[in-house]
Amino acid sequence: MTAEAGIAALAITIIAVVYRYSLKKKSNSSGQQKNKTDYIVTKIHNQWYNLTDFDHPGGPVALSLVQRRDGTALFESHHPFTKHKKLMQVLSKYEVKANESTYGCQLMDERDDGLVYEWDGIENDEFVSDLKALTSEYFGKIAKEKSLSKITEATKATPARWALVMTLMISFFGTLPLYIHGNWFFIVLTPVLAWLTIANYWHDATHFALSSDWRVNAFMPYLLPLLSSPSVWYHQHTIGHHAYTNIGHKDPDLAHAPQLMREHKSIRWRSTHSNQAHFLRILLVWSIASGIGLNILSDMRSVVKLTYNNAVPCMQRSRLNLAAHLFGRIFYVSVAYVWPFFVFPMWKALI
Parallel, antiparallel, or unpaired for β 47-50 and 307-308? Predict the structure, then answer.
């Protein structure tokens, strides 16, 4: 495999992502009759809403995260700058008042009822009000200093942050040819640059915090999907972990390797857990956590079982979506685990 082939594969990935979202836009704008699965419906505060025609600032990706789920936790946690009363007024326009079955108003998992939190009175809760006030005060000052029209713009990446991300990304792709040719220095440096790059932009993009333009946030993770498939990461991290942090059977991060590690009471104890604090056990778990765990095992289970770590339900993928996803995973496995053994000596490939 040459650097040119790698660039070509990257270009194909970019085209596929753009094509995917162009299809999404066309399907939403067409006058064809929709199937039940085409509607974006969610349950917030025990009320169903049809958000199919809602032009959300976060774009279709943000809306898709709540499709056929109880979206209360995501709804409440992602709108800190807007008065609760105003949020509910906006939502009321999309309320499903009758014929819920017409729009497919059914949760993917009936256990996803949102009852793990007590939402009654949240709009008047002193703690919540204080947090929102402090957040608005902090980012409001930044918005005022920079003459930004919206306070949400102050939460996005600054020009300095973008410069850092671009510098790291150019450095990573610039060292790929030497890495591919087996230069010892770059066999060490290039993976480090890859990690620094995704650590400085990937997480923020999947939280819609990198840019005010949803297209940028949706596109950027596909440039370097080394940590995980972006679509699966949304389920594992945004829908699951951040909405239900450390809550058993809701936070998938508690069940990444239940056969080897028990980090929460919701995980059934096994005899293999008796040595989980041993250094070698921790080293084993973290050495396979991303490369094999997130990218392969948990990913494929979510595709087959339609649930991520038995905590976050997943939608059935369309044929096109499934084909693109499997292509991405096969490409990742081929480049990360197969290709090195064809071009490097065994001992160098293992490194």
Answer: unpaired
